[in-house]
Design a protein that fits this description.
heterotrimer, A: 5-stranded mixed β-sheet, 14 helices, 43% helix
């Protein structure tokens, strides 16, 4: 690859982009310092749910293209984290957004990736519709749906089982993997007995007559829900870009927290079928169960538990081993 | 009708008890439904078969002789007239009129020789050991003792027909029906089986109803020959051949010519039929 | 399997000649060893990513571990149970329809029509519908397997009944068999070669269908079968375990082929009834 030509080109583009950004006065666009190596094209993959809002804002506002004119960004919204993991392994995807569960599993198996920017913390709820199911104990032998077997929900369910029933595998007999929309439909139609899900689905289920049986915060404390990852190799090759990406995420999160109405409007434009602007606004303001932040929390606790019940082959010495340097100052856990 | 005749006494003895002919054909008309409507095969057949008698029905191909046998066996109902077997007229297929077919594959391939002969006995009420013993008797009678454990696919055509004969005879039928059983065999095997059959029939005092198109076969095996002729066919003549001499005698040759005339066979006499 | 005798003289001596002299078991074993050596060589030389490929040694280890801690045994048994019951249900449906077809024209028509509509449907395509009808439990899988198995059995059995030699049916009636015994003692054994072919086909379809269906079905917990095991292994990025699952499938496939061979040798081969496939 003609690195030098690239460098020159990118430097020129970056300067122009900075000037453009200042002139346009786009809300929140960073003052672009001329960056060194940046990729020519980028594939970012994420999934469904309001938890991915920071990425949706970056996408809708074309913040990456503005920061790096000439950068071709391909956004892929996938139904589960599995193809995202596969894509990163094969090199088709450079930045992937997923839950902490799959991130930890991949890290432990040696994919050599780390978190470049956490997205949010969320209290994940175990929902049930059948009035006969009131406690965890009532779930013995019942059909419970979680996202994939590596999801944080599946892990949280094991923690609940251990805490309340003494055996983390006590509820394993009828676990089913379903993605969130299918799971919600199955719960509401009575095909399954419980659904361990995430925002906004748990709120929608609540509104449609389901009841909360358990909350993940009650067992792990406040903990990170979604993160974005990239491989160490990619980070090393495009360090300034990676740092910039982190800052763009932080910027979007600030927008959500400080100007929720504006943020909601952007989200509604991005995904009109999912919800209206008003609905988005309501969601992103439910701070008690969904907080957007780049500060990772509960990673060590989660990893330790997963390791103890055999879902994780090794544990990190400290949370810093799981993230890239831009995240260090957040004082995570 | 199955089960109504227990095969304990020899067939001829049972026939004697009844008195009168074993088989009586009275004005029998036979046909079948084909693609072009009802096809009459036999216009009229009238004759009787007494106990221990060997009656051969000969006719050209298509003369309805097989149909006649099938009617006696109970596979084809008569379109007219009556078929009476020891006084019974409504005839279902049954072991009292055991059949030996022409095809080699009339044996059950999944049973060995002994089983092929013994199984029909068990079906008719014989106990397993008795059936096996009796089967062995008839297997020996037909010269198959060395092959009792073999499966049909391991046998030659001639041996298969022997098994079929053993099976039919073991049932001690009132009358043994044979439908051109040697037609698919080579000339040497055929000749041998004809001789053996003759001896077996005498030893077992079996009443025989035998269908063929071969005049020589009729002359070797039969007491009387029923000649079917015409389309649809009728019994043209019933010839007594008990006193005809051996094959190299003048009487034999004359009878042969006579039968050929009856069958209205044109052309040169070239040996068979 | 007998050795092939090579008796022609004046042939140049070479590796091929000696190869043919070895007993079949030895030949296959040597080929297998050669394949494993190539596999290991690929692993060592090309160094593919451990997330995409595994070495024979890792797979053997994962395989051994899986059997030792009982997981492979448990999931194999689960899958086989569903398969057996599903094929059983399919066989009963097939038998009923075929008997009906043998006895009446409308039965024959019904069978022909059902076969042409339902046989082409791949089992997995029916699964989402089955999950709606039967719920998210094993019954949905049983339905899919039964559907995959019923039609091959029905087709073959129907052909078997239709092509029974009429002479032995006549013999059966002649010796005095009742209709019921005619079916059990004559028609059934006569149709056995076709029945076995149908069963082999049903097994092959069912086997493929159940593994694929388990992947779609997504059961994650203790109820899972071999397909789920493989899918889970992949989720947890345990690639050797994925291969171990595949090896198990292959071994089971070979085992059942062997069993079918034994069945055939004891029956239709012994009776000279095996049709050349």
């Amino acid at each position: 690859m003609a690195l030098r030509t690239n460098l020159v080109r990118m430097a020129a583009a970056a300067i122009a982009a900075a000037a453009l950004a200042v002139a346009a006065g786009a809300g929140g666009a960073a003052q672009g310092a001329p960056t060194a190596a940046a990729p020519e094209k980028l594939t970012i993959a994420y999934q469904f749910g309001v938890g991915y809002a920071p990425l949706m804002i970056i996408k809708q506002q074309r913040l990456l293209e503005k920061a790096y004119p000439g950068l071709k960004v391909e956004w892929k919204q996938l139904a589960s984290g599995t193809p995202i993991t596969d894509g990163i392994i094969k090199g088709d995807i450079q930045i992937g957004a997923m839950g902490t569960g799959p991130m930890l599993v991949g890290w432990a198996r040696g994919i050599n990736w780390k978190v470049i920017a956490p997205l949010d913390e969320a209290d994940l709820w175990l929902m049930a519709k059948n009035p006969a199911i009131r406690t965890i104990a009532d779930l013995r032998g019942k059909r419970i749906a979680t996202p994939t077997a590596t999801s944080i929900q599946a892990v949280a369910l094991r923690k609940m089982a251990q805490a309340k029933l003494g055996n983390p595998r006590a509820l394993d007999s009828s676990l089913i993997s379903m993605d969130h929309p299918d799971g919600m439909q199955a719960l509401l139609s009575g095909q399954i007995d419980a659904h361990f899900t995430s925002p906004p689905y748990q709120w929608q289920e609540l509104g449609r007559g389901a009841r909360v049986v358990g909350k993940s915060y009650g067992y792990f404390g406040a903990h990170t829900f979604l993160v974005t990852v990239m491989t160490q190799r990619y980070y090393d090759e495009y360090r300034p870009f990676a740092n910039r990406f982190y800052r763009l995420v932080k910027q979007s999160i600030d927008l959500i927290n400080k100007k929720p109405k504006t943020a909601a409007a952007i989200l509604a434009r991005e995904d009109a079928t999912e919800a209206t602007a008003a609905q988005f606004q309501r969601w992103i303001m439910r701070k008690k169960s969904l907080t957007y932040t780049t500060r990772p929390r509960g990673l060590m606790r989660t990893a330790g538990f997963m390791n103890r019940i055999g879902l994780l082959g090794k544990v990190p010495g400290s949370w810093r081993e799981l993230v890239f340097p831009p995240v260090y100052p957040t004082r995570g856990s | 009708m199955r089960g109504s005749t227990k095969v304990r006494l020899p067939g001829a003895t049972r026939a004697d008890e009844f008195g009168g002919p074993v088989l009586s054909m009275d004005g029998v008309r036979l046909g079948y439904w084909g693609s072009r409507g009802f096809h009459l095969a036999v216009e009229e057949a009238t004759f009787k078969v007494a106990a221990r008698e060997h009656v051969i029905v000969i006719g050209q191909s298509g003369s309805g002789k097989s149909t006649l046998l099938k009617a006696v066996a109970g596979f084809v109902p008569p379109a007219g007239g009556t078929i009476t077997v020891t006084g019974r007229t409504s005839l279902e297929p049954g072991p009292d009129r055991a059949v030996v077919f022409q095809e080699f594959d009339q044996l059950f391939p999944w049973r060995n020789v002994l089983e092929n002969v013994a199984y029909p006995l068990r079906v008719n009420g014989w106990r397993r050991k008795d059936a096996a013993a009796r089967a062995r008797e008839y297997i020996e009678l037909t010269g198959l003792s060395h092959a009792a454990d073999k499966y049909p696919h391991e046998l030659s055509g001639g041996m298969k027909q022997r098994v079929a004969i053993a099976r039919a005879l073991a049932l001690e039928p009132l009358i043994l029906l044979m439908d051109e059983p040697f037609g698919s065999l080579d000339a040497i095997t055929r000749a041998r089986l004809q001789r053996e059959l003759r001896g077996i029939l005498e030893r077992t005092e079996t009443t025989l109803f035998f269908v063929t198109h071969s005049i020589d076969e009729a002359l070797i095996l039969g007491d009387r020959v029923v000649v079917l002729h015409g389309v649809p066919s009728r019994v043209r003549e019933i010839v007594d051949i008990r006193d005809v001499g051996p094959p190299d005698s003048a009487g034999y040759t004359e009878m042969r010519i006579h039968l050929r005339e009856l069958l209205a066979i044109e052309g040169h006499d070239d040996g068979d039929a | 399997m007998a050795t092939r005798s090579v008796a022609v003289p004046a042939r140049p001596r070479g590796a091929l000649l000696r190869w043919g002299r070895l007993p079949a078991a030895v030949r296959y074993a040597l080929l297998l060893v050669a394949l494993i050596v190539i596999w290991q060589a690929y692993w060592v030389i090309k160094e593919p990513s451990p997330f995409l490929f595994s070495s024979p040694r890792d797979v053997a280890e994962a395989f051994w571990d899986g059997w030792r801690d009982g997981n492979l045994a448990r999931v194999t048994w689960t899958t086989l149970k569903i398969l057996a019951v599903g094929i059983g249900i399919g066989a009963i449906v097939a038998l009923t329809l075929t008997a009906f077809a043998a006895l009446s024209q409308i039965g024959e028509d019904l069978l022909t029509m059902l076969v042409s509509i339902l046989n082409p449907l791949p089992g997995v395509a029916v699964l989402p519908l089955a999950m709606l009808w039967f719920g998210l439990n094993t019954n949905a899988l049983l339905f899919v397997i039964a559907n995959a198995a019923a039609w091959p059995i029905a087709i073959n059995l129907n052909t078997g009944f239709k092509t029974v030699n009429p002479t032995i049916v006549a013999v059966g009636r002649n010796i005095g068999l009742s209709s019921r015994r005619l079916i059990t003692d004559v028609l059934a054994p006569a149709a056995l070669p076709h029945a076995i072919t149908g069963l082999k086909t049903a097994w092959a379809f069912g086997w493929r269908t159940i593994i694929a269906a388990e992947l779609v079905f997504g059961v994650a917990g203790a109820e899972g079968g071999l397909g789920t095991y493989i899918n889970n292994a992949k989720l947890f990025l345990n690639i050797p375990q994925v291969f171990a699952g595949l090896v198990t499938i292959a071994i089971l496939g070979m085992a059942f082929e062997f069993l079918f061979g034994v069945l055939e040798r004891r029956t239709i081969v012994r009776w000279g009834m095996k049709r050349s496939t």
